[in-house]
Structure formats: structure tokens, C-alpha cells
Amino acid sequence: MTRTLDLAVIPGDGIGPEVIGEALTVMRAAVGESLEVRETHYPLGASHYLATGEILSDDTLAALGQHDAILLGAVGGDPRDPTLAGGIIERGLLLKLRFALDHHVNLRPTRLYPGVSSPLASPGDIDFVVVREGTEGPYVGNGGAIRVGTPHEVANETSVNTAYGVERVVRFAFAEAERRRKKLTLVHKTNVLVHAGSLWQRTVDRVAAEHPEVRVDYLHVDATMIFLVTDPARFDVIVTDNLFGDIVTDLAGAVGGGIGIAASGNLDPSGAHPSMFEPVHGSAPDIAGRGIADPTAAILSAALLLRHTGHPEAAERIERAVEADLASRSGAEARSTEAIGASIAAAVRQYS
Ligand SMILES: NC(=O)C1=CN([C@@H]2O[C@H](COP(=O)(O)OP(=O)(O)OC[C@H]3O[C@@H](n4cnc5c(N)ncnc54)[C@H](O)[C@@H]3O)[C@@H](O)[C@H]2O)C=CC1
Ligand SMILES: CC(C)CC(=O)C(=O)O
Ligand SMILES: [Mg+2]
Fold first, then answer.
1. Class of domain 118-256 (CATH, top level)
2. Most CB atoms within 10 A, among 131, 174, 201, 231?
3. pLDDT by residue (tens digit) across 90-120?
4. The pairing of beta strand 127-133 with beta strand 237-240
5. Record-annotated residues binding substrate (predicted)?
6. Among 75, 90, 251, residue to substitute to test ligand 2 (most atoms within 8 Å of Cβ)
């Protein structure tokens, strides 16, 4: 009997539709006849907002919540466009989705694939995962400004960290470490952000007692930047808050061979809501429309989606094909978005 996957697709803005087109081609090749992927496309994003005035209606949000999973490209327009000021799309669409669908685990793996060159001189064996908290921190929109535009302006952005929210993501990170090389690094800034830092540190200490096999480490976020460049092989599982995780994972993507291959999943591990998979990168307005974006991050995000929704063989086929494709790139001429997608899809079919 053919199984079905009820998939919501949000191509988004800029390079989003370009890379999602290739991710869907590869996904269809990977599942073949074994899985019927029913795609519903949602034209959300900055362009959609500018054309229609809709950012994310309650009805659309409710409809998205009914799917098995969501595949998203990237959203956000030109940061200089005054009609998009105030993070109206990032906040009103992307973060709203993550919060409403309780995506408290933002899982971002980094692996230096064989044959991929890192900008680091001696990268070593890079293979770690960042477990970024996804529903709290300074991204909740708890803040405000007074005397705006005057020399006396005061602007506040409050980081919200709850015991419940921190514990569930820390528990997820320990479980991840148990499955991997049994090392967990808490990344924070406990020497300055003392209230939130204390909660994170105490939570890690308490949960660590239940995981005696896991080596626990702590790094301030600034020092983490050093070690991501000088010794990334030291990391196995990093657990951190929403803002630090956002920053750490762009650098992680770069040292792991480029932002164009960095994938992610926004998970509600309870399964109560559909999880959402997307590249780490944004809509890249600087290269949009030129057909040169690397679709690999979106393709690997589709693999994460398939594994999460119970289709590990299809996920494996995509990962093997990506690995082979990446290994073949060194010294070769740069290819278009479409050519990379077609080549990975062809390799996937060979493994079927
Ligand atoms: N999840 C999402 O939807 C995200 C949306 N954004 C939004 O995207 C817009 C642009 O943000 P930026 O800060 O410029 O970050 P960005 O990730 O879009 O671009 C940063 C740099 O990486 C390059 N790049 C990104 N993806 C690439 C790919 N697949 N292949 C080759 N090069 C790639 C871009 O050309 C650019 O030079 C903004 O509106 C921002 O708010 C940013 C990050 C995540
Ligand atoms: C709007 C931002 C929270 C998106 C972003 O940069 C990310 O999730 O990595
Ligand atoms: Mg980011």
C-alpha cells in the first residue's frame, strides 16, 4: 500500500523558490512510488505581502498546522525596503510559525563532507549538531522603545527564558548526545547575562546527572566563535538559546563548507504540530533570480524532513547522493541551481 505524506510547501522569497524547486525534484526522486507526496503550496513571504497585504492569516496558520510537515525556502525581502521595516515578515511569518507550531528545537547539523573544502586551513573532522532553542530568547518580541527618534531614545529587547522551555530543549540535546559521541557543550554568556545564564547552567547541571555517560562542557559564546574556527572538531552537540544559536549556525555553516549546504529542522518533537524544515540561509536577495544559488541546503533539509516523518530510506538516498555530488565538485566548474538539483536527483534514482 502506498503511504502518503501531506506536505506544506512555502517557497518564500528570493532564492527560496529556486532552491525549493530542486528540493522537491530530489524528494520526488527519492520516494519514487513508495510514498505519495501530496504538496500544498502556500505563497507566503515578503513578495506575497507586498502584493496582497497578507503576512499570515489565522486561516492559513490553521491550515498549515494540519499538514504532516512543512518545507520552507526562505522568507524576507530587501532589508532597505521601508514597507518591510520592523522585521514584519521575519517576525510576522517565520517566527510566528515557529512559535505557533511549538518548534522549540531548532536542529542544525554541520558536517564537513568528504571532498568539501572548508575555509579553515586544518578543519579536522567537523561533525556536530547545534540544538538551538526555537520559541524563546530575545526573539519573542518582548520589548519596546520610548522617545523614539530623539537623542533620549531607549530601546529594550527582553530575552525570555522559562524553566519549562529551557529544560525541554536541554533534554533533547542530551538525548542527541547519547545517540552521538556523548559530548554536550552549553554555549551562553553566563558571565554577563547572569539571570538567563544561571537558568541554562543549572538546567544543564541537573539534566547532566541523568546522563553520566555524556561529557559536559561550557563555553561563552564569544569563545565559541574562536573554537569554531580553530578547533571545530571539539564539538559534538551544542545546546544554546535562540539568538546565540542563530549566530553560531551561520558560522558553523561557513566552516562546514558554506551556507549553501547548511540544513535545518524546526521541530516539535512531541508531534503535536508539524515540524518545519528549511535551509539555514535566508532569501539571499544579492543572488536571487540568477539561478546560481546552491540548492543543497534545501535538499538536505528535505532529507531531514523525510527522516523525521518516518521515511529514513528515502532520506538516506538523498544524503548519499548529496555526498557523492559534493565530492565531485572540487575543481569542477560552478553549476546552476537547476543543474545541481538535476544531478543530485539522478544520483538518488541510482540508489533506488
Ligand atoms: N529562514 C529564513 O527565512 C531566513 C530569512 N532571512 C532573511 O533573508 C534576507 C537576506 O538575509 P541575509 O542576512 O542576507 O542572509 P542570507 O543567508 O540570505 O545571505 C547571506 C549570504 O549568503 C549567500 N547565500 C545564502 N544562501 C545561499 C545559497 N543557497 N547559495 C549560495 N549563496 C548563498 C547570499 O548570497 C549572501 O551573500 C533578509 O530579509 C533576512 O531577514 C535570513 C535568514 C533566514
Ligand atoms: C528571522 C531569523 C530568526 C531567521 C534566521 O536567521 C534563522 O532562523 O537562522
Ligand atoms: Mg540565521
1. alpha beta
2. 131
3. 999 999 999 999 999 999 999 999 989 899 9
4. parallel
5. 98, 108, 132, 222
6. 90
Answer whether 0.95 is exceeded by the pTM.
yes
Q: Which ligand is nearest to the CA of 14?
A: 1
The answer to whether residue 42 scores a pLDDT higher than 70 is: yes
The pLDDT of residue 1 is above 80: no
- For 12, the enclosing helix (H) or strand (E) is strand 3-12
- What residues flank ligand 2, with Cβ below 6 Å? 90, 94, 246, 280
Tell whether 236 is in a known binding site. no
Expressed in angstroms and rounded, the spacing between residue 88 Cα and the centre of ligand 2 is: 13
**Domain pair 1-103+263-352 / 118-256, same fold:** yes
Q: Which CATH superfamily is domain 1-103+263-352 in?
A: Isopropylmalate Dehydrogenase (3.40.718.10)
User: Where are the chain's structural domains?
Assistant: 1-103+263-352, 118-256
Choose the residue to mutate in 250, 283, 294, 344 for probing ligand 1, maximizing ligand atoms within 8 Å of C-beta.
283
